[in-house]
Design brief:
6-stranded mixed sheet, 12 strands, single chain
Length: 337
């Protein structure tokens, strides 16, 4: 199958690959793992020599040298200042624990294209899981609708990716969207701080999210919300009076566009503004996608977050190193005096 490329709207920077997989061509590939692999490999190829490349291992702290230590880790500059041998200890700062959460409620089964929001969301999360697994990060998955469904705690074992792909392949089955419960479950289960990534259309009252998101942030988790919408949901596209089917309540509702259009667009914008404001107040990243948008945009968002995380950790470690150097120099000067 030939997979086409398209120029897409660029969300952030020149670090995006110049050409991206056409999502409609990509979604015609039946195998979910193959879809994810194509996106990830194409993304890496496009990065070339971007700032994301470099050492994944960051300096952590010093300890005194002991016989048998690798001499390559000796800090000779510190030795020249203090006349003592110290080994630089390192820590793998990219050993990320990530929990993916997928909304599989029936509203995700809506689609005006050849595929629906659920199929697109599964591809987004499969791509992120494939990327994280390839980076040797621990990645897990929780799926939900009106109740909790599949749960796979974060791991980086060989079989983990296969298990995640199987769960992501499930079709929407529930009715209402209950986002509060899975967030509470993750907050209780996730003992180690990491990244919690929730993909949903978020067609639920924002107040249902607030307390759970606040609890996750209070526990030290980084949170990324990926809101996935169908292009037809961004505007009221019904032109004539119609009976429409509510996918979650399973009821038909009569809609007159002359009356409903203004109310729909106002309510949609108010909900969008409220969700954005809530995330800003809590320090939560919110990324909105439509199902005609290249999957690479979600991967770029995740890689950008990882890059910022590593940069922040590196600055923190450099500050620790500077403080340690000053302390050792002061101690050495005092000893010589």
């Amino acid at each position: 199958m030939n997979v086409g490329f398209s120029k897409s709207r660029d969300n952030a920077s020149d670090l995006n690959p110049p050409a991206k997989l056409d999502p409609q061509a990509l979604m015609r590939i039946k195998n979910l793992t193959l879809r994810a692999k194509l996106v990830v490999e194409g993304f890496y190829h496009g990065l070339h020599r971007s700032p994301f490349h470099g050492n994944a291992i960051e300096f952590r702290e010093y300890r005194p040298y002991t016989n048998g230590d690798d001499l390559r880790n000796l800090d000779w500059k510190l030795f020249a200042r203090s006349d003592r041998y110290y080994i630089k200890k390192f820590e793998d700062e990219t050993n990320l624990h990530c929990m993916l959460i997928q909304d599989q409620s029936r509203s995700m089964a809506y689609g005006s294209l050849d595929y629906n929001k659920s199929e697109y969301t599964s591809t987004v999360l499969a791509t992120l899981a494939y990327h994280l697994h390839g980076q040797r990060d621990s990645v897990g998955l929780l799926t939900f609708d009106d109740h909790l469904k599949d749960y796979h705690p974060p791991r980086r074992t060989h079989g983990q990716l296969r298990r995640l792909m199987a769960s992501l392949s499930h079709s929407p089955s529930g009715r209402d969207t209950d986002i509060q419960r899975p967030l509470e479950e993750i907050a209780a289960l996730a003992k180690r701080r990491g990244l919690v990534l929730l993909a949903s259309d978020f067609l639920t009252p924002v107040e249902n999210l607030t307390s759970s998101l606040a609890f996750l942030r209070a526990r030290g988790h980084q949170v990324l919300l990926i809101r996935i919408l169908d292009p037809a949901e961004l505007r009221f596209s019904i032109d004539a009076p119609s009976m429409i089917f509510d996918m979650e309540t399973q009821r038909e509702v009569y809609v007159d566009p002359a009356i409903a259009r203004e109310d729909y667009e106002r309510a949609f914008q108010q909900h969008r503004t409220s969700l954005k404001s809530t995330c800003q107040q809590m320090g939560i990243d919110l990324f909105e996608m439509t199902t005609d948008q290249p999957i690479e945009d979600a991967l770029h968002q995740l890689v950008t977050l990882q890059h910022h995380r590593q940069s922040s950790a590196s600055r923190s470690n450099q500050a620790e190193r500077s403080s340690s150097n000053k302390a050792e120099t002061s101690h050495a000067d005092g000893g010589k005096a």
